[in-house]
Write a structure and sequence with these properties.
The protein is of the alpha/beta class. The chain has 22 helices and ten strands. The chain has a five-stranded mixed sheet, with helices on both faces. A three-stranded mixed sheet has the order 5-4-7. The chain is globular and about 110 Å long. The chain starts with 5 loop residues before the first helix and ends with a helix.
Length: 685
């Protein structure tokens, strides 16, 4: 005890001063440690960036300025980690509100925040309510608002209302892509005030948009135009069948060359080929394998691959996707015998009856000739390429981890039951930490993508991105690298310019041309980074554009479709000629998928695309549409069957992507076990 006398007080004061001094000294030491660590990290990053630049300059990948040497594309290399780099604050933040209230706010920033705000507040339910009011008012002799609007003479208002209301979740994207001003303004005001006011819109502009956009033909055209090619030319290698393996008792399945000369190519194609596929478009869609792969009692040591099942019937397909409807198949009936016969579809004993589904057999795994598939959980890393607009980093990526996780979560739902799942390892969007992500300009960012007009710059640029050591080391560990870049949104793309690269972007592309294709890359090998990557546009990564439930999870649809290509399956319409082949001789080498044309484009050309999207939207909203309405989707006019309008590897409206066929899953398992054994060994569970 020190006591309370004068001496004790002096001692107490001295102790307090000494303690404070020691505390300050400790803080100085700690601060010095972190400053020193930061300086070492800064020096290390600079040295690393310098070494990387020197290395890539030596092999021609970078020029002396530190920009990508690929024709037409320049890549920035940040050497100063103290450089000012910022992005706009998140939409819901106080800082964002202050920026928007600034009279001198940047137009691009205002457009981006408005776009993001619309995604949050313009819901499917609100859109449906506005459409009903708007169309009802146009059907009245004396509208309450005093604003007179007319639809073309002869318009079937009941059909028009029913179609647009059932497609309410797609209407926001439709109006955005159509560059709507007046109708989008009405929708935005209705979301904010709960009332429809036409006083703030130009009546002439509104009338023009009503005439042009509120019609089914235009809607069909839009569904067709939203299909984008994700591959150039492709054809899969078929696996060896029972007839050709009868004399084979050992070794993995042998590959046949296939009958067509067409193969998947990454770079240029002939003008004749371009003309031949002029009507080719593609989307990236998705599915869940709710039908199992191989029955357990068949997964035994057989010479033939135990997967050559019959074509899926309409009933099989509807049963496969029943989990996507909140009400299941309640109230849904199979088409009548007369309806099936009229459509050229084989009649069944269940015609006209309530749909009943057989119990799913137990899921087995692929085994043949010593090749055995083992279930895997594959890691994925997203690499978000960006560019600078002044000192603002573009495009904004506000919640990268959340966006990446949503893509993986939904993709895993689509791959349920396949034995293949994915896990998010990392989302890279920090250009200081990962300088290879930074491209010099908006044009460079748009060009370093999958797009047919930039095959001499876009694809090589993506390959060079994959060569960076930070990316290549992931590929060597058999991580799936997904590169993000490019956009078709009006904030970054002038879609009215016919020569703009951004107007021709593939929504997604798989840069992995392995031996499961008839014309594989001669240098492809498992783990080689520049030949194992996927690219997606920023639009399908950003929740504000397509990566959310609001848009039927279009981002995950794209990712899952491309992962299907990456791991070994192709489009159901694959082939040098439309509608060629059957069974294992089909170009996708999958016998249970009906041969078909590109479904969405074919449906659009026949004014059936909006109806298909409407059927799928109603089904997923629990409204029990009837299967008889799907009989008209037979793009190849094949007797006895219909197109699989729910298949991941077809081109369909986003809402329709709900399944993989049993043989597609078997092929995935076969391709992974045969061509990616190191990946399977590394991530088997």
């Amino acid at each position: 005890m020190i006591g309370d006398g004068p001496k004790a007080k002096r001692l107490r004061k001295a102790a307090i001063i000494a303690g404070g001094t020691l505390l300050m000294l400790a803080l100085v030491i700690i601060a010095g440690f972190f400053i020193s660590k930061s300086m070492r990290l800064s020096l290390s990053m600079r040295q690393h960036a310098t070494q990387r630049s020197a290395q890539l300059q030596a092999d021609g990948s970078l020029d002396a300025s530190g920009a990508a040497a690929v024709t037409g594309v320049r890549r920035g290399v940040i050497l100063d980690v103290g450089a000012s780099v910022r992005q706009w604050p998140e939409l819901s933040s106080r800082e964002a509100l202050q920026l928007l209230n600034d009279p001198g706010a940047d137009d691009l920033m205002t457009a981006m925040y408005t776009w993001a705000n619309d995604t949050v507040h313009i819901t499917e339910e609100l859109t449906e309510a506005l459409l009903r009011r708007l169309l009802q008012q146009m059907n009245e002799d004396e509208p309450d608002s005093g604003q007179v609007m007319f639809l073309p003479r002869g318009t079937n208002m009941t059909e028009l209302t029913g179609m647009f209301v059932s497609l309410a979740r797609d209407v926001l994207a439709y109006l955005r892509d159509s560059r709507s001003i007046a109708l989008l303004r009405l929708l935005r005001d209705f979301a904010g005030r709960g009332a429809m006011s036409m006083s703030d819109v130009d009546p002439d502009v509104l009338q023009a948009e009503v005439t042009q956009l509120l019609n089914v033909s235009r809607l069909n055209q839009w569904y067709g135009s939203t299909s984008k090619k994700d591959t150039v030319e492709t054809q899969t290698r078929p696996w060896r069948t029972a007839a050709t393996t009868a004399a084979t008792t050992q070794g993995p399945p042998q590959l046949l060359l296939g009958g067509a000369a067409a193969g998947r190519r990454m770079l240029s194609v002939s003008q004749a080929t371009q003309r031949a596929r002029a009507d080719t478009t593609a989307r990236h869609l998705l599915a869940t394998a709710s039908i199992p792969v191989i029955r357990t009692d068949q997964a035994v040591k057989q010479l033939a691959i135990p997967t050559a099942s019959d074509l899926l019937t309409l009933q099989d397909m509807v049963c496969a996707v029943q989990s996507f409807s909140p009400t299941g198949l309640k109230g849904m009936l199979m088409p009548s015998a007369a309806e099936m016969t009229s459509a050229g579809v084989d009649d069944t004993a269940d015609a006209g009856k309530a749909i009943t589904c057989k119990p799913h057999p137990k899921v087995g795994t692929f085994y043949h000739g010593g090749v055995t598939f083992r279930p895997v959980v594959i890691p994925v890393v997203f690499h978000c390429q960006r560019f600078m607009q002044g000192d603002v980093l573009q495009p904004p990526i506000w919640n990268p981890q959340e966006a990446g996780q949503n893509l993986i979560d939904i993709t895993n739902k689509f791959y349920e039951g396949t034995g293949i799942q994915f896990k998010l390892q990392e989302v890279r969007s920090d250009v200081k930490k990962h300088p290879y992500l930074l491209l010099s300009t908006l044009d460079d960012w748009q060009s370093c993508t999958g797009n047919p007009s930039q095959e001499t710059a876009g694809f090589p640029c993506l390959q060079e991105t994959a060569k960076f050591p930070e990316v290549a080391e992931l590929a060597e560990k058999h991580v799936v690298n997904v590169l993000i870049g490019g956009s078709q949104t009006p904030m970054f793309c002038n879609t009215t310019a016919s020569d703009a690269v951004c107007t021709t972007l593939y929504y997604g592309y798989t840069g992995s041309i392995g031996p499961w294709f008839t014309q594989a890359s001669a240098t492809w090998r498992e783990g080689l980074s520049e030949e194992n990557w996927i690219v997606m546009t920023w639009d399908f990564f950003a929740p504000e554009v397509a990566n959310s439930k609001r848009f039927w999870d279009g981002g995950a649809v794209t990712l899952a479709h491309e992962l299907g290509h990456y791991l070994g399956v192709m489009h159901t319409h694959e082939g040098a000629e439309p509608c060629e082949g059957e069974g294992l001789d089909k170009a996708d080498a999958v016998p249970d998928t009906p041969v078909n044309r590109q479904v969405e484009q074919w449906a659009a050309e026949n004014n059936l695309a909006a109806s298909l999207a409407s059927w799928c939207s109603d089904f997923r909203n629990g409204k029990q549409p009837q299967p008889k309405d799907l009989l008209q989707y037979n793009s190849c006019k094949m007797d006895g069957t219909t197109d699989n309008v729910f298949n991941l590897m077809s081109y369909l409206p986003n809402a329709c992507n709900m399944m993989l066929s049993p043989n597609q899953v078997a092929r995935l398992q076969w391709a992974v076990a045969t061509f990616r054994p190191k990946m399977m060994a590394a991530y088997a569970v």
